[in-house]
Amino acid sequence: MSLESIINRILSDADGEAERIVEESRKKADEVLSMARAEADKAAELIFAEIERQARLEASRVLTKARLENRLALLSRKKEIVKEILKKAFSEQSQRWGGMKKEIIFKEEVKEETLDEKRLLDEIRPRVEGEIAKILKI
Predict the structure, then answer these.
(1) Three-class SS state of 106
(2) For residue 35, what is the enclosing H or E element?
(3) pTM for this one?
(4) For the segment 24-76, what is each residue's pLDDT rounded down to a tens digit?
(5) What letter does residue 99 receive in the DSSP assignment?
(6) Torsion of CA 67, 73, 78, 81, to 10 degrees
């Protein structure tokens, strides 16, 4: 075998080895890329699921808050209606009888005092509110 054929043989073997190494490197790069893509897809799914969960929670909070505000507004309006009814009743009573009065009975005498409307309203409002609400179905 001549020197030239030995060199050609070595170069040929080296080219073959280089092609094998390049091919292995490409396969390894493709595997790494596939694994990276799979991990990225998995991470994206997890992130999306978490964002979706948080969005549902926030929507639920907003809905609950809106319902509560609506109920509070309705309750406030009901109280205003009851307050108006009580004011009107006391006003009519005052016009007819000259105000609300109470009798205080002592041993020797009976005393009559005019009642403080505001104080009386504050005392009876809780009991009367319930009854008026039942009657008006509010």
Answers:
(1) coil
(2) helix 3-97
(3) 0.52
(4) 999 999 999 999 999 999 999 999 999 999 999 999 999 999 999 999 998 88
(5) S
(6) -160
Cite the beta strand spans of the chain per DSSP E.
101-105, 110-114
Q: How many residues does the chain have?
A: 138
| CB neighbour list of residue 93: distance below 8 Å, 6 or more residues apart | 99, 100
CB within 8 Å of 102: residues ≥ 6 apart: 112, 113, 115
Domain residue spans of the chain? 3-136
Rounded to a whole number, what is the largest CA-CA distance in the chain? 152
Give how far Cα 26 sits from Cα of 1, 38, 51, Å.
Answer: 36, 18, 37
Q: For 91-120, how does the pLDDT look when each residue is reduced to its tens digit (9 = 90+)? A: 777 667 666 777 788 888 888 877 777 777
Tokens representing 113 are 């005092």
Bridge partners of 104? 111
